[in-house]
């Protein structure tokens, strides 16, 4: 808030334009009402001084108008629990109007702004991590900032965002996101979570012939839809996570529902040479394989699928997993998502006992260990990618190697305008 600063010597001057078409002319206006009481002058010092604004802000963002000061005081009236600190985040547009229903992550918890554009939280240690998602169509998507607030104190901080003429954002959190009214259409890419790798200790006997087929997870499905008309409102988003039971990603926008399912988890199959199964399927399928010819000791493992393809099947005991057939690239032509993880065939009686397949782009490799060594599966490296298998082979129960599966890539919802 600032006082008007006229050019020296031109205080009170106004420009008068007659309605009859006569040339405009300057005049000086002065009060001539011979007041009994001149009253309080209307200026910054009498409405909201810098000192008062700073006191209200208590080290945060000072209010710029009397209205903002009153709004700020309203948010400060509530009690702060003993031993806690409170942060108040206010989200405003370019005209400093509050943005309601903006998503603010405060120390990892989603809080929606109220009608004043305010989201707040308390914390015992006074440390606050803020991540802002004002809405689809606004600037500074995912902006992060750290704040330290003394115990027993309250601080308010403003985040001012602007309309973004174009944008390409990645949503990783399940929430409802406001859509700015200046956007008329969007493109959407929805990616389901990738399947996790197998995680198993496999007990075998040295005097028996066997084949083991082990594999990681299939890629999550990918759904693209372009030129979706929008006119404000909200985008309702569910993001599939490989670490939960919710693997499918869903976008509800402008009356449409776009769903991309998660990929299947990996598995381990063992036994004699008569295995018969199908590798995991998803957006991209896991490669198949196994023993092709016992007499020639021919074993092969197919590569995991990528860009929507089936896994490769060179022959053998396990058929390849199916892919979704159409592309898993963002918006059809962009980044490649959801590659399938690799498979592994391990046999006892063959000269080469381990045979590794290759993952699809972004999927994880296969890993195994023997006896007392732990096995840590590899995580997928792209959204929707398949996680890697972790196999520990032991010949008796006294061996203590432990498997830890690789995790599939979490899903995402990507929106551009």
Automatic annotation (TrEMBL):
Region Disordered, residue ranges: 302-321
Superkingdom of origin: Bacteria
Protein known as: Glycine-rich domain-containing protein
Classification via InterPro entries: Gly_rich_dom
Lineage of source species: Bacteria, Bacillati, Bacillota, Clostridia, Eubacteriales
Organism: Candidatus Avoscillospira avistercoris
Span of domain Glycine-rich: 174-417
